[in-house]
Amino acid sequence: MGIRTKIALGFVILTVAVITLVSFLGAQSLGFTVDSSDLIHLESIKNDVIKQLSTQQNLLFKQAKECQKAIDNIGINNLSDQKKLSDLIIKFKDGLNLDYVQIFEISKNSDELWQINSSKNYLISRLFNTGPLSHHGYLVSEITINPQKNLKLVIAKKPELATKEDNVFCIFDSNGILAGKDFLKDYSLDALKDIITSNSTKQIRIGDKLYRLRSFELNDKTQLITGYSTQVATLVKTEINSLMLRLAILEILGFLVLGYFWGKKIFEPMKTLQNSIDKVSEGQWEKIPPEISEESYEEISSVAKSFNQMVNQLSTARINLIKAQKELAKKDKMATLGRFSAGIAHEINNPLGTILMSAGMIKESVDKKLPIEHEDITTIIEEVKRCRDIIENLRTYTRKTKPNLMKVLFKNFFEEMKEKVIKENEKGFSISFKYKASDDSYIFVDKKAIQQVFNNVIKNAVEASDNINNLIINILAEETDKECIIKVLDNGKGFECEPENIFEPMFTTKAQGTGLGLVICQAIIEGHNGRIYAERDKEKGLTCFNIVLPKASSNELEGDSVEK
Ligand code: ADP
After folding, report:
1. Predicted local confidence at residue 180, as pLDDT
2. DSSP code of 119?
């Protein structure tokens, strides 16, 4: 069975359970439960009533026969002896416990009946009209007592009907209730219409009792409503409800058990898959389980197959990528080395050329026994120094020598820098310093190294300016909670490339440039656990270098030399 079938089956079971539970709760809230035993119960009451009616009808017929015999014995041939007849009628009525006894002659025209008991004549016509259970709910029996004279005897009696406790019934026709327990007497026919026409069991509350009622047709004019009271209804309800509840619990338990086992079977391979995916995404290729089992549900096995395939492809691609990366790195290294060497060669070539030229001049002077020019010696010394500086720079970058960090007050350090920078950069441009940080912030710095950074950044600003006389450099000291920031702003022509590129080794836009200055600055600042980055405010036409250094924590002593 595939996952889909199992899930579908699970849903069917769950739906049935939910429906059972909902009907149980619904039935609970409505107070009853419809069931077929209900109809059986109501029909048995109906049958009981009909049985009683027909027994009593038979009895009445027998009594009519007894009366006929008695009349025959007396020998009544006509209705002239009224005294005799009246006595006889009273005797029948009392002796047989009848409600009505009437003897009459049937004329051809039924309207001209000779009536012995004129006060009750309305009854007779209605009794005839309405059949055995007459208009007033009487059982009626009629018998011919003298065929020659066409005399008839009619006797009538109210039926005595009983039912078991809690069962109720009521017989009625279009004129109202004929017989039965009078529990419905407060109800009009209109109120009962719903029960009569519905052909189903209805529930109504009478007083503080609940009745379940149903209507049956006795004949074309007469209806019988049977019912039973709430005790019995409650009994049925309780049985059905507890059955439904047990069923719902069983279904839910079944669903849980099945769900657990199916879930386990479905989700275990999914979990393995998930673990493997996690490992792949974390890059732990070595720890991926060899292969995920493909012997599972169709759907999972196809996912496992695809995953295994993907892992294999990825792993091959990864190996290739690593190989390519290594090759690329090698090529990149070679290219960098080439650029580097070219840069160094170019950088060192210039001073060497000057040194060679000055040395040549000195040699010429010596050869010609002329005085040696002081300027030539100075040039040689300066150019040698320049070469040494280049070598020193390279060493700083390649060895990334650890800075010698000292804890200093940021404000003091800034003042010191200000003095040195101003002293070393009196070259015709305007430079200003502004300190906007608190007076008690400390930083760890290697003053010499940071000064080198300043010099390089200022030198770049000077070189980026078209006219040194118009150049303005502003140096601002700021701070955040955790960092001290030095901003070096210049109004030069700005970058000729993206600001990020300028920190690439050997990147330069200058004919004489080495592309090492900012790389070294970055190495120095990173040695301070800080960062350096450049921005350009095009609107204001300002280039800004941000040198960010972390603040020192207060528990480290001022002037401490700390290696970081
Ligand atoms: P170099 O000065 O030898 O070129 P750097 O690493 O110091 O090497 O600078 C790299 C490049 O960054 C420079 O060539 C220049 O294009 C750019 N640059 C640096 N500072 C500035 C600045 N203030 N304004 C414009 N461009 C700058």
Report:
1. 78
2. G
| Predicted structure pTM score | 0.42
**pLDDT band at residue 313 under the 50/70/90 scheme:** confident
For β-strands 472-479 and 430-435, DSSP reports them as parallel
Taken in order 536, 522, 381, 421, is the CA torsion positive or negative? positive
- Residue whose Cα lies nearest atom 12 of ligand 1: it is 502
Pocket test for ligand 1, best of 386, 508, 524 (most atoms within 8 A of CB): 508
483 has a pLDDT exceeding 90: yes
Same domain, residue pair 134 and 270: yes
Q: Do residues 182 and 86 share a domain?
A: yes
Co-location of 392 and 405 in the same domain: no
Per-residue pLDDT tens for 446-479?
Answer: 998 898 899 899 999 999 999 888 999 999 999 9
Within a domain: 112: yes
Per-residue confidence (pLDDT) for residue 110, from 0 to 100: 45
492, 528: one domain: yes
Domain boundary residue among 217, 249, 284?
Answer: 284
How high is the mean pLDDT of the chain? 78
Ligand 1 center to residue 488 CA distance, Å? 14
Q: So what's the pLDDT on residue 531?
A: 96
383 Cα: distance to centroid of ligand 1 (angstroms): 22
d(CA 483, CA 468): 32
| Same domain? 111 vs 247 | yes
For 58-72, 196-210, 224-238, 298-312, which range has the lowest pLDDT when averaged over its residues?
224-238
Domain of 484 in residue numbering reads as 401-559
Atom 17, ligand 1: which residue's CA is nearest? 502
Residue 518 CA: nearest ligand 1 atom is 6
159 and 29, same domain (yes or no): yes
Supply the CATH number for residue 522's domain.
Answer: 3.30.565.10
123-128 long-range CB contacts below 8 Å, 24 or more apart?
Answer: 123/156, 124/154, 127/100, 127/154, 127/156
Q: Do 14 and 110 reside in the same domain of the chain?
A: yes
- E strands present in 151-208: 151-157, 167-173, 176-180, 202-206
| 385 and 260 belong to one structural domain | no
Does residue 33 contact residue 241 with C-beta atoms inside 8 Å? yes
Looking at the structure of the chain, the number of domains it has is 3
